Amino acid sequence: MKTKILFLLFLAVNSFIYAQNNLQGTVKNLVNGEPVIGATVYLPGLEKGELTDLDGKFMFKNLPTGNHKIVISSIGFSTFSGEISIPSSAGFDLSLKPSAIEMEEVIISTPFHQLQSDNVMRVARENVSTLTRKGAITLTDGISQIEGVESLTTGLGIGKPVIRGLSSNRVLVYTQGVRLENQQYGDEHGLGISSKGIESVEVIKGPASLLYGSDAIGGVLYLNPEAFASTNASKAEIETNYFSNTQGYQGSAMAATSGEKLKFIARGSYAAHSDYETGDGERVTNTRFNEKDFKAGIGYQDQKYKGALRYNYNRSNIGIPEEMGLQNTDKDPLLPYQEIDNHILSLDNKLYFKNSSLDFKVGYQFNNRREYEDEHAHEEEEEIHEEEEDNVGEHPALEMHLETLNYNLKYNFPRFGKFETIAGIQGMYQTNTNLGEEILIPEATTTDIGIFVTTHLHLEKWDFQGGLRYDFRNLDSEEFGHHEHEEEELDPGHEEEFIPALNRDFNSINGAIGAKYDFSESINARLNLASGFRAPNLAELTSNGAHHGANRYEIGDSSLDNEQNFQIDLSVEYRNEHFETYVNLFHNTIKDYIYLNPTGEMIDNDLVFQYTQNNASMYGSEIGAHIHPHPLDWLHWETGFEMVHGELEDGQNLPLIPANSLTNTFRIELEGEIVKKKYAFLRLENVFDQNRVSPFETRTGGYSLLGAGFGGTFDLNGSDLQFTINGNNLFNKTYISHLSRLKPDNIANIGRNISVALNWFL
Description:
Layout: H1 2-17, E1 23-29, E2 40-43, E3 48-51, E4 57-60, E5 66-73, E6 80-86, E7 92-96, E8 123-127, H2 128-132, H3 139-143, E9 149-154, E10 158-163, E11 171-175, E12 178-179, E13 198-205, H4 209-212, E14 219-225, E15 233-243, E16 248-258, E17 262-273, E18 289-301, E19 305-319, E20 337-353, E21 356-372, H5 386-389, E22 398-412, E23 419-434, E24 444-458, E25 462-477, E26 502-518, E27 523-534, H6 538-542, E28 544-547, E29 552-555, E30 563-575, E31 579-603, E32 606-627, E33 635-648, E34 661-670, E35 675-687, E36 703-716, E37 719-728, E38 753-761
């Protein structure tokens, strides 16, 4: 009997200790009281979400004790943002107000995971599905449709994000919660990330060194991975795409399932494209590319812990165009071409305490970049042995292994009054190893460490956010080549550039402060002041040789200092149920801006460029409006103007600055019984002349591109079949973008392209 009593007492105590903290509620329409079906109920701090059922009900299980933010959103309703206390003795019932204003999303790239309307910093956000249905061929092609963002391209297969005129090492890319490292300093080095398995894109425009450290001087491109399935649910998707211009195709399949605590997701994708065709009917030789991509994830969550292990493998084969030549529609790249393997493994851990949490992310990346060249092109430089001629293209001329380990530890302090505070430490350890005959940068080790603190104060009409950060970076590279007095020891006719060993330390203290003021429910203004820095990269410090991908001879400077910038950003927004408009103004001052400057000399028929520094400034704006007149909620007109100008202290214009542009889009969205979520759009993009060019650039003429598309969704007895048909450059205009690296060869951009996509959601 005594044993039984003790056993029952143990069960009671155990049940009390491990009692589940659940939250359930109902979401209804404020006007008619009907349930809101499919509304998203999201807990930002826990990164946990559920959808309401046919009765408008939702339930969360295994929630940690404490106060948590809650966001409820649905298309056609005003988004609700509030706070709940767990455990709660009552349910959470809410009525949403119908609204023509498009629903808001939670911003993940900023530290406090808030709605855009609550953020001190204005962040641009787009779902990848929205970019795809506008006809985007690749991820970088899609993000160039976001305000203030362009793409530096080499054909279609190679694209780099440009934020307000800054790119490469000045724009930091985050994927799976860790910084992407893939030799991004090179103009012809693309992202190496497939758009499939990426749910949304967020863009921080301006210095974000406070949150992300070095290389975020120009901004951050934050890629949010595809979400797991809802609790006790499964989902699957099959997607196919066809692109008329490149005769390209793409296929992707995804499956996901979730229980109470464990979650799984996996996706595989393949894409292949032929050389693209310009408006005058010529195919640009060797712009063909193909891509294999695999993404998988395992998640776990209970009351005290949440973890997500994700893996992404990407294999890209990308042709490097040199001249107009062979005209065919093959999809295997010709020489020269890149073959790139990119592995990303990330682990996101969160420990929840009462009213506080600890967030620890760790990531490992292995980037294997191989470039194959036509060895006959170097017959004048070196003798090709007979046995080597039999293996042309079989061995890479350039092979670099970049391994990166990065970590990010953050502690979210308990709220003190109206203050929310986060402190953290971030770091990176990176090695670069060369295995090919050619080198771009020497073998080196990079070590980063940074500590920061940021706080947010929320008042009735005011929001303030600020913080400080200290960063330290060490670059340690090995010697490459031989001194001049050693040249006699080399084989006859063999020349090799010399790069001395380098060991440099860089450090910087940066800060940011911002304020948002709500004049009314319709009008708000944001003012942000922020500094940022970028340590010079290995190419800028150590280069001493021909860069064949760029057709130039580059010389680095081992004495280069940090780039240090300060940006003022002012944003004003107005919105009501009929009309939305915004104005973003910025001024960016960059001390010791690093750039390539032609010396006028020639080495082995390559023009010589020297890395140098000078102070620079950039300024510009993004202005936009969105009209959706009530009760014609299905009708939308969107317009946006973008402008950026950059110049050195001596008055010279900076290179690769996007031309001013004006884009107008008419869009209709309708619901139906047979075809749900019908839409159609007509878009006209006007790009103006770019006459403000650097001394080694030529002006670029303006052009106008017309695009259109339509689509909808069929209900197939519990599954959805979505179709989209889009056309870009419908008038087959022959034009050249100022940010095309094929511009010096007078090679035009892509002509008319019709894309068709089918998505089957199971």
